[in-house]
Amino acid sequence: MIELLVALAIGAAVLTAGVMVFQNLTVGAKSSGTYLNVALGTDTLTAFYGMNQSALDVWVAPNYGRRIAADELKDQFLADVGRSTAVYCLGRAGGVWNQNHPTTLSVPAGFDGRSLDLPDAFRLQLEASLAATIGVFTAYRGASNAPNLTIFLLQPSAEIDQLSVLAIYEVDLVATSTPAGTYASVRRYVGDTLTGYYDVFYQNSAGVAFSPMAVCFERQARTSLVEGSTIDRLKVAEERPFYFVWWPDPAMPGLTAQAGGAFATNDPRSAYANMGGQTGLFFVVPMFPAL
Amino acid sequence: MKSIAKFHSHSGGVLLVVLAVVLVAAAITAGWISVMTAQLQYAEQYFTSSKRRVALANATAMTRQYFLTQVLTKSSGPGASIDLGDGWGAIVISATNDTPLTTFQKAAGYNHFSPGNGDGYSQSVACAISTGSTSQSITVLVNSRSPVLSGIPVVVNSPAGSLSGTVLNEGASLLCQATGSFSVQSGSFFLPAAPSNALDSSSGTAIAASNFPFVPITGSESGGAASYDGTLNVIQNASGINSLSTIVAMSSPNGLNVIDGSVSFNGNGVVCDGTGVVTIDLANPALGNVRITGNVTNLIFTGQTTAADRIIAGNAAAVLVVVNQLLPPALNNIEFGQSNNRKLALAIKSTSGAAAVFRFPQSGVGTWRLLLTLEAVPATIQLTGGSQILVGGIQSDSAIAVTGGSLTVAEEPDPKLMERLAARDGWLEVSAQ
Q: Between chains, do B109 and A223 touch, taking CB under 8 Å as contact?
């Protein structure tokens, strides 16, 4: 009788443990093992990866393996920022992919790099130096609400009449119908060479806004000129201008727009509060890291 | 006996089942613990990664602080080894033996996004940083360049710099003095300090300060420590570093003329009548640098009268004139006759606070090639109608009033030939390897 009671007690313990392990494994399985064949179109895959195919097998979010890949790219990005002299975040409209990945940009005699003090000033210089970029990037001050993002990281150049590009990061969101959802891709290029990337697929997240992807905070010293609350609310940098940058997070189950909170229109948080809780991949990036 | 044997047999079966269940339970529990351990390690890795980044930021901040206080305005750096402990950041910096504000070393590349506008002088120092779990190297460039020659023809310093009258700056302005009055129209302007009034652009519309950061910069020390408050102390400072009184003695192929206004002198294009009147002939190719030590009340520059003379003067050696008149009488009249194409840097320091009048007697449109530095010299730039073009720039820590016409300030077209005659600002650039 005693042995029977012991056996029952052990059996109960085993069953309890088994249930807990099963729960762990099933939760894990749901977030680490599913991938889908996503129709992205040949143009998109050619632009992103140089692939001549129309669909791609993609891990479905949440996926911790892809998050690790994202973390590796994040570390690379932060290391690149530490080596950069200037960082410019440029927005792109939906469905507009950037395939311009120069290593140098020609600038005219008498060029003054200090005049490129805003992302849009760099965009205009980029278009002047590289005509193929005309129309690729959108103009903005403050928050870039365009659905895609390109980040240019510049470094000292060997020639006085050139700007040297250290690396370019592309952050793209592609709304898909087969299956329905959003494909997210973040890539690093040095020249035209793709040197790192991560991607993930968010089911049932088509059309959900993941913006702003970048917010440019200007120097406080610029408040003397009143330009409207949309711009003036972000003139808060004590000394050096900087960005907030968000990347899509493979560990999140979806792209879920947040309520954003009730902030006054002149409160800087009103520009980006909806990004709270959307991703764990958030950066504060100085515009001129070396200074 | 049979029932006892049967009981023993049944009991043995139960034990076997129990052992089997324990075995399975152990395996499952081990698997569960393994999963939990992996999750803990995942969290731990995140913590380690975050701590490493904080340690890197700490170490970089310490490095910046060291160079700003111990190197930038000095002739050597003692080196440093600092550890915050517990893996929160450590640096090892070797001793340095160079003077960043007077070095003639150039950087290996061009950083267009720097206060020096992609050029200037640079001292490179490699530093070892430890973040506890990792170590890496960062490079600190201790840079310097004259702001006036870097595309900023108008520089207004603390404590009392201001501009009034009609002034059009074709380049950028640097306003280190944030509370004064600035009536200059400028292509753009940099404002390192607190918010100020917006300036007008050259088209007359209000513009905001540049978003480009201009801090921290310094050109000198105050009380033995680098000064980052926008003050100007580059004509004769205590350390002798970045001091034009020192530079004037070493930067001219035609040598140095030391003038006391109470002593007659005549030679190399410089005439002093012994009663405080000094005339400097900028058309004289033999003219060297001039250092005026005192007793001068009138300083007269004569330029060139013909186009041919101006071409010759443009190719002649640059001239630096330093007036360091700390005792009475005050130098209160400086006159610029004709036009001038000779590269001229004029620096005047006074502690009396006496105002000086800069007269341009020629009417109509005139052009003077001049890089003017004023310390504690409130100035009136008195024009004779029309428009005067100043090719070079103005740097002052005192009030400047332009009267009798409009003053246009343009960049020096050939700054390379003036770099060694000009006082500099210094700044840091820090980048990872």
A: no
Measured torsion, CA atoms of residues B69, B75, B81, B83, in degrees rounded to the nearest 10: 10
Q: In whole angstroms, what is the distance from residue B1 CA to residue A275 CA?
A: 80
Per the rule left: phi > 0, alpha: psi between -120 and 50, beta: everything else, B353 is left
Q: Over the stretch A214-239, which tens digit does the pLDDT of each residue have?
A: 999 999 989 888 999 999 999 999 88
- The nearest CA of chain B is from the CA of A28 a distance in Å of 10
Cβ atoms of residues A244 and A283 within 8 Å: yes
Find the residue in B nearest to A153 (Cα): B113
Chain A window 147-166: which residues touch B at a Cβ cutoff of 8 Å? 154-160, 163-164
User: Which positions ≥6 away from B119 have C-beta within 8 Å?
Assistant: A160, B110, B145, B150
| Phi, psi angles (nearest 5°) of residue B125 | -130, 125
For residue B67, the 8-state DSSP code is H
Instruction: Work out the widest C-alpha separation in chain B, in whole angstroms.
Output: 144
The fraction of chain B above a pLDDT of 90, given in percent, is 63
pLDDT in tens, A158-200: 999 999 999 999 999 999 999 999 999 999 999 999 999 999 9
| Any A CB within 8 A of B177 CB | no
pLDDT in tens, B226-273: 888 889 999 999 899 999 999 999 877 888 999 999 999 999 999 999
Rounded CA-CA distance A182/A40 in Å is 10
DSSP calls for A259-276: ------TTSGGGGTGGGT
